[in-house]
Amino acid sequence: MASEAVGAIIQFAFPVVMLIIFFFIGRNVERRHLERLLERESALSHIRVENIKNLPPGWTVTAEPLLVYGSVVVANDYYKVFISGLKKIVGGRLGEYERLLDRGRREAIVRMKTMADEHGCNIVWNMRVETAMMQDRPGRAASSAELYAYGTAMRVQ
Questions:
Q1: 34-43, 90-99, 109-118, 136-145, range with the lowest pLDDT
Q2: CA-CA distance, 34 to 65, in Å (whole number)?
Q3: Could you tell me which residue, 120 or 11, shows the higher pLDDT?
Q4: Residue 11: exposed, middle, or buried by beta-carbon count in 10 A (0-12, 13-18, 19+)?
Q5: What's phi and psi for 71, nearest 5 deg?
Q6: Mean of the per-residue pLDDT values for the chain?
Q7: How far, in Å, CA of 69 to CA of 88, rounded?
Q8: Could you report how far apart the first and last alpha carbons of the chain are, in Å?
Q9: Are 128 and 51 in contact (CB under 8 A)?
């Protein structure tokens, strides 16, 4: 009888302990990524990004325009899946996914700006961001997302 009680406690405690571990590991990884991302964004702040289709009058293009892009795939962790599952029951914002997609969007833009910088460009014009959700198996919730930023890079004066 006692061994059944211990077995039931272990079956309940193991997922809870794993959820707590995933939370702290995920939070640490996210914090470190955001720190590195902020450093890279600052280093590339000299590259202007616009989503307008046409250059303003008076701007002179001094280099051949080229397509630049940045892509990143971000994955859900078990903590986010668990918490969002609970929130889906009662409704409301899914802040965990919002932060995940925001990090992915920023990372894709930084990668796009890095490509522009490597080609000596100082502006990315007509920038767009596309998002595609990916599933492990059909009929299941999305397990990851690809964020793809692209635009026309050029050097202007």
A1: 136-145
A2: 31
A3: 120
A4: exposed
A5: -130, 145
A6: 86
A7: 34
A8: 81
A9: yes
Distance between CA atoms of residues 153 and 120, nearest Å = 9
| Three-class secondary structure assignment of 15-82 | HHHHHHHHHHHHHHHHHHHHHHHHHHHHHCCCCEECCCCCCCCCCCECCCCEEEEEEEEEECCHHHHH
Residue whose C-alpha is closest to residue 67's, from 126, 26, 21: 126
> Which secondary-structure segment (H or E) carries 9?
helix 2-43
Res 1: pLDDT:
56
Size of the chain, expressed as the number of residues it contains: 157
Residue 93 in this model has a pLDDT that exceeds 90: no
* Six token digits for residue 16: 């809870």
pLDDT at 153: 96
Sequence letter at residue 145: A
Residue 2: burial class (beta carbons within 10 Å; 0-12, 13-18, 19+): exposed
